[in-house]
Amino acid sequence: PPSSPSIFTERPLVSAQFLWNALYKYRACEYCMRALETAEENARRLSGMPALILPHQELCKVQPELHHTCPHCQVIYCSSECRQAAWDQYHQVLCLGPSHNDPDHPINKLQDAWRSVHYPPETSSIMLMARMVATVKQALDKGHWQRLFSNFCSRAADEQEEMAHKLLGGKFQGQLASLRTLFTTALYDDHVSEWFTPDGFRALFALVGTNGQGIGTSSLSQWVHACDALALPHQQREQLDAFIDQLYKDIDKETGDFLNCEGSGLYLLQSSCNHSCVPNAEASFPDNNFLLHLSALRDIVPGEEICISYLDCCQRDRSRHSRHKILRENYLFVCSCQKCTSQVDDPDVTSEDEEEGEGDTEGDDMEDEMTDV
């Protein structure tokens, strides 16, 4: 029904902030990816204006007084609950203790190696795989987690190669081998020994690349949404809207497109939603953390499949040929949705203006859609 468009909310089995994103001082909770900067701190950093004052600061929901650090390695959490949840699930294995700044620590070496082969705009992280291993290592019921992870779509060997090529580029064979060596040194565990073999590692890599859902969190974005919902007299509304418009222009000049804390997660329910170029649902992160909200875009009748789009709005308006090219390159499948089927006789050409933008498809556009907040 229109009054309640939410279909479900879901927490990921594992999630992780992208490594370059974290290095560039996008501060997020190590567990739930909640943005840790206040909206004003966020706006100041992104706009390059250290004296900026935001109006209506009471609308910012970030509570720095609740933030906690791990007493051993100093990573930051938005709350004691998140610190405990991380410790209980995976952080005992992944905590670097006093070695958190040691470049020779095996986990730091693994992260450095990943950053050297996977640059922004980021679409995946080796730490998602690390948290899968650490979760199984720490679990009392290891089979439970292995069964959960086995629910995610797996790929044939040739498609695994394609996914590795997409994430790592032309020299992916050698890079995959060196990442596997570092991954094994840092994390090897008998219970998931198959994940450390060449074939198993490539399969795990492809699983994360195919099923990882982009997560975007932003205290500024959350503040802007709260401002939009304010009931204000006309003149005050115009002033506030003008302030926000100017702020985004300043941010665009200083920072460009990278506004959010970004990462990815494995979501059981969301990953079972198929793609359609005319979706009836969409995923978003309105709580400023990893909690995914799947919402209906229109009325959905009983028995109708819930479909999301892996393409952004601009890409969905392109020709069938262009849409198929993007989906094949990024997700390794050919779409046969209602829209694609109805356009099956369209010529297999892309218009000139589409060709000009074609180079952008794999990076920013994909990431913007994946991490919509």
Automatic annotation (TrEMBL):
It catalyses: L-lysyl(20)-[histone H4] + 3 S-adenosyl-L-methionine = N(6),N(6),N(6)-trimethyl-L-lysyl(20)-[histone H4] + 3 S-adenosyl-L-homocysteine + 3 H(+); L-lysyl-[protein] + 3 S-adenosyl-L-methionine = N(6),N(6),N(6)-trimethyl-L-lysyl-[protein] + 3 S-adenosyl-L-homocysteine + 3 H(+); L-lysyl(36)-[histone H3] + 3 S-adenosyl-L-methionine = N(6),N(6),N(6)-trimethyl-L-lysyl(36)-[histone H3] + 3 S-adenosyl-L-homocysteine + 3 H(+). It is an enzyme of class 2 (transferase). Its EC number is 2.1.1.359, 2.1.1.372. Residues 342-373 are annotated as: Disordered. InterPro entries: SET_dom, SET_dom_sf, SMYD5_SET, Znf_MYND. It is found in: Cytoplasm. Residues 345-373 have a biased composition (Acidic residues). PROSITE patterns: SET. Keywords: Cytoplasm, Metal-binding, Methyltransferase, S-adenosyl-L-methionine, Transferase, Zinc, Zinc-finger. One of its GO terms (biological process) is negative regulation of gene expression, epigenetic. Residues 177-311 form the SET domain. This is Protein-lysine N-trimethyltransferase SMYD5. It comes from Electrophorus electricus (Electric eel). The lineage of its organism: Eukaryota, Metazoa, Chordata, Craniata, Vertebrata. The gene is SMYD5.
